[in-house]
Structures are given as structure tokens and as C-alpha cells.
């Protein structure tokens, strides 16, 4: 649980201090007044001017009070941090209380300053860059790591951060930080081939704290992984084509020995699986590399839906499900037709594969004026909710044997996720084990085209 930073001991102590009671000190003044009055009465009676002496006693008492008031004022105005003058009575008590409160306040202040100093020195020692940006986008404070990683220099205090980090993706991120909760990976403006991960958080209204760290090593490793998968997939493609060609020729021979026939059939199904795997890997790597290529063809959805439905019926031959097509939207999509068709068809083949024979599968296209929905609903084996968050990871399979038996590569939903990301769409999955699943792709308004 979040624990607030402990309030310094003395600050708490401060609240418990009991101040001197003013009444005790007021009694001193009253005693002095009484003393003056008694003396004045005696003298007044003695010399026969009683009331005049009483008035003089009041004036004398008033004068002592005025002197104290003068000393208090002089102390507060000129040397409030010095020990206060020694005054008796109510003014003395007041002075002492003010002095004590002030001293406590100074101690608390000193503790706070030390705390701020410690916080600041820990930020200075960090390897990660930290930059404070005020509500006017101006740089307020930064640590030395920010100079190394982001190139901020001492002249940049008060400079607009967007004139310093000018990459379009950073500007986009700055204006929409809520849309990228993981922050942004961007090229370093200082060193070529260096990458930094930047994350910003709002505080105190529109001020922001920016944290950045070097991810060049991670970026390079990731790139190596991509290149490796890409190369190996390309290298496997040619031998696989040759193998499957020969295997097909042998399987097609009519006079083939039945003992060999079974072996060739198996070889054929395994080479098909490997081919599917290589194709999916290549498609994934292309999707990763094509991130920034504009995807803005107009895709006529009714015709794509019919084509997908025909393909689904062909694939459904071995399964015998009842397939339904449910289109109640006239809107078209803006995107890449090949990629979207491949994502949609992955969802449809999954529904067919993971539904026991004789099930019902409905493929739908709907819109509500704001968003459009491509929906595939089945009444198949369903998915335990604990698997849902990881389902779109590469090679994540709930039941590897079943997936292998059905010819799955474990890459289908990863491909779907990438294609959708490139179209600013997202996938919603609802599923109950042994009851069925609904995979819904939600497209935002900017990806829709409504025919006039
Ligand atoms: P695979 O090639 O194994 O089908 P996917 O990435 O397409 O790989 O799917 C990942 C896993 O999600 C599958 O192995 C399967 O367990 C589960 N899955 C996908 N679609 C469905 C569905 N319609 N019904 C039940 N499980 C599904």
C-alpha cells in the first residue's frame, strides 16, 4: 500500500507543544496595576489629591504597557530571529509564544529543505534522465543524465521542450500521452543509432515529469531477433518448396505402395504445416517493418464479407458447422485489404477449428455510426478467462496438441493484433469455456467510409 513520506518528527512535535497561558502572565500586569494603585492611594490620601494620584497611577501603568508594546514591535520589525527582549506580563508571554512558534517553524523548514535536497541529489545521481516541464511546456529543471541522453544544456532553462525534442512522434506523444501508457521509443537526437524510451507523467495540473532511459541495447537485440527470424524464414522457404513439390509428385502417383503412401501423406501434411509457419513468420515480420506505411485503400466490406464467407464454407467442409453471415452495415473500411482479409480469415478459421463438429458460427459486420465491428461468434470449446490477456502473444497456445492437430501455427492472433494495431483498431474477446467465444474487432470512426 502507498505510504506517504513520513512527516518529520519535529513537525509532529510542533503540534503537541502547549503555549504559555496568557492569563498567568496577565495576573502579573494586574499585580503591577494593583501595586501602582495602592501606592497612589497612600500618597493621594497623604497629600489630599486622591483622584489625581489614582489617575497618575493608571497613566504610569499605561506607560509601562506602551513601553512593552514598543519593544515587541521593535523586535518583530527589526530582529525577529534574535532572542526576544525580556519583558514581563502579557506582552512578554505573547512575545515568547511568537518566538517559540517561529523557532519550531524554522526547524520544520530546515528539515523540509534537507528533504528536498536529498530528493534532488537522488535525482541527480540517477542514470535515467529526469526533466520537469511546467504547464507552458517550458523546461524547469533536469538532471545531468538528461544532458547526456537528451542533449539539454544550461541555456535551455525556460525553453519550450517541443523546440528541443522536435521529432514528430515525440510531439504527437506529448499531446496525447494518455494514449501511450508505455511511453515512446524514439531515436536519440544526439547520437546516431541510439534509442531512448521516454515516458511522461502529469502532475499538479498540466506540469509534467519526463523520464528517459537508453534502450539502444534492447533495440539492437530486438532487431537481431527480427533479422534472425526473417532470414531463417527466407532460407527455409526454398528447400520447403522443393520438398513439397517432390512429395506431391510421389503422393499423386497411382501405383504407389500403400506402406509408402501413408508416409508420404504424413510428410505432405508436415511440410504444409512448416510452409504455413514460414509464411506466418514472414507476414509477421513484414507487418512489423511496414509500421509506417500508409494503409488507406477503400475496402468494400459487403464484397469482402462474401468472399470471406465463401472461403469459410470451403474450409468448413471437414467440420460440417452451420455458417451464418450477418451484415447490417453499409460502411466500408479504409486500410490494407490483403492484411485485413488475412486477419479476418484467421479469426474465422480459428472459430471453425476450435468448435466441435456440427457447431454454429456467425460472421458479422455492424456499425453504430461511431465505430464498426467485425464479429466472429462460435459455440465451440471456449477459452478460460485466465488465458485471454496472453492470447495474442506469438506461439501462445492453450492446448498445444490440439492446436498442432488442427494445423495451427500459434501465430494467427499475433498477426491479427499487428494488423489491427496498424489500423488503430482493437480486438475484444468474450469467451466461456465449453460454451463458445466471440471475437470482436472494433474500428474507429476515422477508419470508416460511409458510401453516399
Ligand atoms: P493457433 O495457430 O494455435 O490457432 P492462434 O494465435 O490463432 O494460434 O490462437 C492462439 C490460441 O487461442 C489457440 O491455440 C487456441 O487455443 C485459442 N483460440 C483462438 N481462437 C479460438 C476460438 N475461437 N475458440 C477457442 N480457442 C481459440
UniProtKB/TrEMBL annotation:
Coiled coil: none annotated. It holds the Pfam family PAS_8. It catalyses: ATP + protein L-histidine = ADP + protein N-phospho-L-histidine. It comes from the Bacteria. Keywords: ATP-binding, Cell membrane, Kinase, Membrane, Nucleotide-binding, Phosphate transport, Phosphoprotein, Transferase, Transmembrane, Transmembrane helix, Transport, Two-component regulatory system. Residues 108-156 form the PAS domain. It is found in: Cell membrane. This is Phosphate regulon sensor protein PhoR. PROSITE patterns: HIS_KIN, PAS. The lineage of its organism: Bacteria, Pseudomonadati, Pseudomonadota, Gammaproteobacteria, Moraxellales. SMART domains: HATPase_c, HisKA, PAS. Member of the two-component regulatory system PhoR/PhoB involved in the phosphate regulon genes expression. PhoR may function as a membrane-associated protein kinase that phosphorylates PhoB in response to environmental signals. Its EC number is 2.7.13.3. Residues 231-447 form the Histidine kinase domain. One of its GO terms (molecular function) is kinase activity. The chain crosses the membrane at residues 32-63. InterPro entries: BphY/WalK/GraS-like, HATPase_C_sf, HATPase_dom, His_kinase_dom, HisK_dim/P_dom, HisK_dim/P_sf, PAS, PAS-like_dom_sf. The keyword Ribonucleoprotein does not apply. NCBIfam families: phoR_proteo.
